Amino acid sequence: MHPKYFLRVLTLFCLLLADLSLYSQMSELDSLRKSLNLKQPDTAKINTLNELGFLTVSDEPKLSQKYLQEALSKSINSKFPKGEANAYVSLAVAASMNASYDTAMQFYQKALTIRKRLNDLKGIANIYNNLGNLYDEQGDFFKSIESYQQAYNIQKQRKDTIKMGRAQYNISTLYWRMGNYPKAIENIYAYLNIVDKIGDKKGIATAYNQLGNLHVDIFKPEKAMDFYQNALKVWVDTENKEEEANTLNNIGCLKDDLGEMAMKEKNYAEALRSFQEAIKYLESSLKIRTDRNDETGRGEIFNNIGVVKKNLGTFYQKTDNPGKANQYLMEALQSFDQSLKIRQKEDDKKGIIEVYNGFGDVYRRLKNFKKALLYTMSYKKLADEIGDTKFQQSAFKDLSSLYALMGNYKDAYEFRLKFEDLKDARMNESNLLKYQQDEFNFKEGQRQREIDKKQNEIALQQEKLKTERTMRNSLMGGAVLLSLLAMLLFNRNRIKTRSNKELTEKNSIIEQERKRSDELLLNILPESTAIELKTTGKAKAKKYDSVSVLFTDFKNFTQIAEKLTAEELVAELDACFKGFDIITEKYGIEKIKTIGDAYMCAGGIPTENNTHPFDTVNAGLEMIEFLHNYQLSKIQQGLPYFQVRIGIHTGPIVAGVVGTRKFAYDIWGDTVNLAARMESSGEPGKVNISQTTFDLVKDHFACTHRGKVDAKNKGQIDMYFVEKTT
Fold first, then answer.
1. Cα separation of 211 and 91, whole Å?
2. Mean pLDDT value across the chain
3. Contact 12/42 with Cβ under 8 angstroms?
4. Nearest 5°: CA angle at 616, between 614 and 622?
5. Which of 253, 433, 445, 625 is the most buried (most CB within 10 A)?
6. Distance CA 710, CA 688 (A)
7. Which residues of 289-323 are buried (b: 16+ CB within 10 A; e: fewer)?
8. Which is it for strands 664-668 and 590-595: parallel, antiparallel or unpaired?
């Protein structure tokens, strides 16, 4: 997760979420205290003590302990287990707030034992939720996920969809922090589905913000921006200024990242526009936080504005405008200074590290290496104090660069070695986390298999008992008669059974071979063509007036092929093409063939339809999405990965079966050639379509006109990149 981005944490999911019936207004404390002096049943007094203990846990911890211990003592003496469990939960909350995690765990376990005995499913689920929070605070992500999952399972049993969603949100956040993006996205979409159904605008916006953060991390900035903008609209509509400021900050940071990406690609016009927009969004967030007297938020925004202005300074250095470069670098120093004053006042050491890091970067760009060295050493010292290995690693790298710029190559070399050593250590930690995650997933699967096995055993046992009971009742009346009949018919049935068995076996073999033959034929031919071929012995070629042909090709196939064994290469292609097969089947598109690393399919055949242009373009976009997700797993493993180009053209073709021994369904015509040109003239990660296809789908997809592009043997052709559905 990028340190500049704001992580939305729902207060609904915090540790203080207990299942007690608590008053939210502090003014009610007095009435609760007065009620203690009234004559009331023991259970009512215990409930009052528990409520008072919970309400005072933060502001008056000693008084809270007194109330809760009295509630606990009275519950035990009165044999009131519900009151006892509630007291333990509140005591656990108090212990966790003081970072006494072992004590909190003991109290939760005592409460859990009681609630399980009472079969209090709601109370049990809430304890598992709190245990999830407790494990999270201690950094044990796997036990935290396991606890949240148990809470989810119980809420599912109770059919409480809202609390099911809360558990899935928590699980998504943990998977995100662990770097398991597919599971994080899966769970946040499940949460979004729930809050969308009940019209919970706050929940929807929270899910959008989370999806934005996730898509930033998986390098899909356009999607991230869409999610952030959707979240922002909700916060503006609901006049939630705090969340509006947070989302404006996220958008500003993303704009800054986009500017850096464009600058690396030397797309300077786009870089400048992104940096300028980043400042506008961040200044809007700053205004809200200033109006709300949110000093912590202001410190964060001043730092982020400093980062953008530092990048603008670099931009003007690269574009040979030293005057503008110095102006923005000096403004960056001013922003960092404003942030530093706030963060020093709040003793925010991690925030101070970020600011010192910014100062060091700016002074290095200004070639004031002495000051750059001072700030870099300062943030390294703080990183050492709090054990922040990420910033320690960053400091080693910065120190190595600075000493090299100053001509001190000996120290530069020493710090480079330290950087590499720490990088390896952190990589080992990351690998250990991955190992633990795999082990956790295996144990979860194993646990579920055990549950399924036990359920199956119970079902089989019940079925067996039912069958035995039926047989026993039936046999009691006719046992003697059946015995006599069995003796008379034994020989006759033995002969007949043997003959029937042999005939059944032969018929079964014939039927299996027929099915296998049909399946193989349908694997290589469309169903209608296969039926025609089986019925008449041949299949006629057919002309189609409008078909959308799609080609894919891997840009870097040759280079990757050289790095893989033959078996590994075939396995990679098989994984990619299987994914494409699922997508084409989903959209009713006919796969034609694969040619090496190219994949060819067509919409609108063998059954003609009017939706084939939309189906084929949707399939192309989904193929890009599929391969991008596949790439992420390869990147995380440090393995090479394919980049795909996709081209689509719509027009007339002829389709039919060629050959007499090894049948092949194929298509011909200039449409096929043009589709191939669309692919070869495209770019990795893009769906490139012709003017003809564009004219058919333009009202349904957002497209970027590329102008006239040279296509081999076809001259200049109008082409379009499909961006997304509208």
1. 35
2. 80
3. no
4. 100
5. 253
6. 13
7. beeeebeebbbbbbbbbbbbbbbbbbbbbeeeeee
8. unpaired
Residue range 231-240, pLDDT digits in tens: 999 999 999 9
Average pLDDT over residues 695-712: 88
Question: Is-contact 177 141, C-beta < 8 A?
Answer: yes
The pair of structure tokens assigned to 289 is 């936080």
Range among 150-154, 435-439, 546-550 with highest mean pLDDT value: 546-550
Q: Is the pLDDT of residue 615 over 70?
A: yes
In a 10 Å sphere around its CB, with 0-12 CB exposed, 13-18 middle and 19+ buried, how is residue 23 labelled?
middle
Assigned token pair, 639 = 């393995």
Query: Which spans in 293-388 are helix H?
Result: 295-318, 322-345, 349-365, 369-386
For the chain, percent of residues with pLDDT exceeding 90? 36
CA atoms within 13 A on the CB side of 652: 3
Residue with tokens 């598109």: 589
Tokens read off for 508: 């079964």
Alpha helices in 12-100 (DSSP H): 28-35, 42-55, 61-78, 81-97
Characterize the bridge pairing of strands 542-554 and 687-690: unpaired
- The fold adopted by the segment(s) 541-725 is Alpha-Beta Plaits (3.30.70)
**What does the H/E/C string look like for 578-589?**
HHHHHHHHHCCC
Q: Which of 277, 276, 203, 211 is nearest to 243 (CA)?
A: 203
Tell me if residue 140 falls in helix, strand or coil: coil
Gap between the Cα atoms of 457 and 309, Å rounded: 66
pLDDT of residue 328: 95
CA 137 to CA 95: how far, in whole Å?
13
- Select from 379, 385, 377 the least CA-distant residue to 357: 379
Place of tokens 């599929």: 626
The residue extents of the domains of the chain are 498-540, 541-725
* Separation of alpha carbons 690 and 682, rounded Å: 11
Locus of tokens 């078909």: 547
Largest CA distance in the chain: 113
Q: Which two tokens mark 347?
A: 């003793």
Distance CA 447, CA 419 (A): 41
Structure token pair of residue 456: 């199956």
Determine the Cα–Cα distance for residues 17 and 548; give it in Å rounded to an integer.
55
- The pTM is what? 0.54
| Ramachandran angles phi, psi of 80, nearest 5° | -115, 85
442-472 as b/e: b if 16+ CB within 10 A = eeeeeeeeeeeeeeeeeeeeeeeeeeeeeee
Q: What is the pLDDT of residue 561?
A: 76
Q: Which run of H or E residues covers position 623?
A: helix 612-637
pLDDT one-digit tens code per residue, 268-325: 999 999 999 999 999 999 999 999 999 999 999 999 999 999 999 999 999 999 999 9
